[in-house]
Amino acid sequence: MKNVKRFGRVAVIMGGCSAEREVSLKSGQAVLDGLLRSGVDAFGIDFKDDIGLLTSGEHFDRAFLALHGRGGEDGTIQGVLDTLNIPYTGSGVMGSAIAMDKMRTKYIWQGMNLPTPKFSYVEELKVELLTQLVSLMGFPLAVKPSREGSSIGVFKVNSMTQLEAAVGSALEMDEQVLLEQWVEGQEYTVSLLNGKSLPVIGLKTDHAFYDYEAKYESGTTQYLMPSGLSDEEETSLGNLAEQAFSALGCSGWGRVDVMRDSRGRFWLLEVNTIPGMTSHSLVPMSAKAAGLSFEELLILIMEQTVLND
Q1: CA 39 to chain CA mean position, Å
Q2: Which CATH topology does 119-181 take?
Q3: Distance of alpha carbon 50 from its chain centroid, rounded?
Q4: Residues noted as catalytic
Q5: Which pLDDT score is estimated for 214?
């Protein structure tokens, strides 16, 4: 293990006030335990928007961010730490903010001719507008709050009745709701470490899609490693994920979620700039396939804070 003393005192910032709080606490605890096993001088902060915890609490030299959802992945905590001149893991303010916003993410990909499913968005429940959008995209559709993670508030809909109900529920979570053409096929996820892709994971679930329960609670979700793709296809998908990640201004580490349709075409869904680090999490799984232990993965993520210091 590399010399970890140069990291100084490390705060693992977790918890938060988003809908992903419980997952964040689990991720943060796993990260904290791993850093301590590696000899890093680390401690945890359950951050609930109290900046005083960062300024007048226990001193730290750099931060490992395990905050999922709003306040953690949207550039907010990154802006605070930048102001305090404290290095932190993962993407900066811009990359975090853009990646958290699914709608703007897709506009950027679309503008760069990167493959992503047809989409539109609504800011209110207007049946006339929904009818018009269905005529352009058809069913089934994915309905997603634009700025939530972990598939919270995501619905697959096959009728106007389902669409109206799903949009109404999603609008309770976000003032902008993404409508996305559904891609039938195999789902894959590509983990990225220091801008380079790790082995691809194929996902299989008996749910309608890889939803919150399939991610964190189900014992039936299958993680395919190897992914089932040919070497050429996996290389191509890895390159696409790297482009998609870089296009948003993301850096450090993260994850790109992708669908492959029946014709073998890949379609970008979204980027996660602070992926889960729980027992069900995908980045540690992919890193392990690349020959990295959980502790080695954490140290490589921390290395970014030294390079950017």
Answers
A1: 28
A2: Dna Ligase; domain 1 (3.30.1490)
A3: 24
A4: 20, 150, 216, 255, 257, 270, 272, 276
A5: 47
